[in-house]
């Protein structure tokens, strides 16, 4: 696979703030890549530099094999940039908005209407863009970014501020966009979103990429214990401890807080088997580490979006 984006040594300073401090990134063609980090980590600035709408102080960037800065007209039809919903033109309906974006690329009204249909907004085509709900407005802004059928799409925090159902609906749309073969680069401060959607994530903090990898790989590399828990009262913690020792199973701790009995272990299978033998599987949950633990490990502090 050729890289859709290759960037090295990107730096950007605003006055005293070093917003981006030596970022290197390689994003493969067809990849769903998440740039993940708390507020102020430098995600948006990095994204804008990759898109070619902001000039870096330093660094080398290849976007689809070309330099995005100064603005490269050959790249514009090949990339889609989602504008924040607040950037819609005043007073235009959803249909007029997407027709306006389409006309900028020489695209006619038919494909624009088809794109509106694709994001489920045909029924709201006559509604003024500023009257749409948060999720509808995000879908319209994504439709505008896709109307010219770009091969690479940039999305800046597309689900921020949406309710859980609207977020899930948007995830389905984003998955489909990627499944069609488009490279998708998204910034997010939601760890669960990155874990669910992205092939690989770059974890950013203080203007730097701390680590890049598949979410599952980053989590696995932590070598954290898995927590197996069942309802309290089915079997005692002492009995479980003895049975696990007899079975030679690894158990870092066995605790019962009156609601759940939890076993921290690196080998969940024999633990579940011991609990099953006791008929004590009601309420079974197996929870591993998450990207939150990865962030904690990389930065030494709890993740706060
Ligand atoms: N145009 C600007 N002028 C001055 N400072 C800026 C500008 N844009 C961003 N910054 C600062 O640079 C740092 C990185 O901001 P950036 O928006 O890139 O981070 P982010 O990770 O996208 O954060 P958020 O999730 O809040 O959007 C922050 O400290 C921010 O205040």
Automatic annotation (TrEMBL):
It is a peripheral membrane protein. It comes from the Bacteria. One of its GO terms (molecular function) is ATP hydrolysis activity. The keyword Transport applies. One of its GO terms (cellular component) is plasma membrane. It is an enzyme of class 7 (translocase). Its EC number is 7.6.2.2. One of its GO terms (biological process) is response to antibiotic. Residues 5-231 form the ABC transporter domain. It is found in: Cell membrane. Keywords: Antibiotic resistance, ATP-binding, Cell membrane, Membrane, Nucleotide-binding, Translocase, Transport. PANTHER family: ABC TRANSPORTER ATP-BINDING PROTEIN, ABC TRANSPORTER ATP-BINDING PROTEIN NATA. This is ABC-type xenobiotic transporter.
């Amino acid at each position: 696979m050729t890289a859709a984006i290759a960037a090295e040594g990107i730096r950007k300073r605003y006055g005293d703030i070093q917003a981006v401090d030596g970022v290197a990134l390689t994003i493969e063609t067809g990849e769903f890549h998440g740039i993940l980090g708390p507020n102020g980590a430098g995600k948006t600035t990095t994204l804008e530099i990759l898109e070619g709408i902001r000039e870096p102080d330093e660094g080398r960037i290849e976007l689809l094999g070309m330099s995005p800065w100064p603005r490269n007209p050959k790249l514009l039809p090949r990339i889609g940039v989602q504008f924040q919903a607040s950037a819609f033109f005043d007073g235009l309906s959803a249909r007029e908005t997407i027709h306006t974006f389409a006309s900028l690329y020489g695209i006619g009204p038919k494909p624009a209407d088809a794109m509106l249909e694709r994001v489920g907004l045909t029924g709201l085509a006559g509604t003024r863009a500023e009257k749409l709900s948060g999720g509808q407005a995000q879908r319209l802004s994504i439709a505008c970014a896709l109307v010219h059928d770009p091969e690479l799409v940039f999305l800046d925090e597309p689900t921020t501020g949406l309710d859980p159902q609207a977020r899930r609906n948007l995830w389905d749309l984003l998955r489909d966009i990627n499944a069609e073969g488009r490279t998708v680069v998204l910034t997010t401060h939601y760890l669960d979103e990155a874990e669910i959607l992205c092939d690989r994530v770059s974890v950013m903090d203080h203007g730097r990429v701390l680590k890049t990898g598949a979410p599952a790989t980053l989590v696995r590399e932590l070598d954290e214990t898995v927590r197996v828990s069942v309802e309290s009262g089915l079997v005692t913690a002492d009995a479980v401890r003895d049975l696990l020792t007899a079975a030679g199973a690894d158990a870092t701790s066995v605790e019962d807080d009156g609601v759940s009995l939890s076993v921290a272990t690196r080998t969940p299978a024999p633990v579940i088997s011991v609990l099953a033998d006791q008929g004590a599987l009601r309420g079974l949950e197996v929870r591993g580490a998450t990207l939150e633990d990865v962030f904690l490990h990389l930065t030494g502090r709890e993740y706060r979006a």
